[in-house]
Amino acid sequence: MPSKLTVLKLLARLKSLRGTKLDVFGYLPERRAERGLIDEYMAAMQSVCKDLDAARLPQAIAIATLAQRVRGYGPIKQRAIDEYRAALSAAMQAYRAPASQPVSSRKIA
Predict the structure, then answer these.
(1) Confidence class of residue 19 from pLDDT cuts 50, 70 and 90?
(2) What does 44-88 look like in DSSP terms, one character per residue?
């Protein structure tokens, strides 16, 4: 039985296969979800940047930092991904909502 150190050395040599078709761990559902999250995040940030102005900057920063919540492994990570997607959806909906009129420009009946 090979020692743990030998196995770790072998895995270190196979590091160059990461992200290629020969990356056997890349086919795991967790890894696929991680790659999908990158695309979702990039799309959200492009949408945010398209309509960014000084008034929306705090919202944009909040949206940009949501991805930092995704941590952990296995079921913990999946729960974090689900929470991230829900929070991102709500934040993007609020970001796209038309800003309410300032009090001074509202019509008084």
Answers:
(1) confident
(2) HHHHHHHT--GGGHHHHHHHHHGGGG--SSHHHHHHHHHHHHHHH
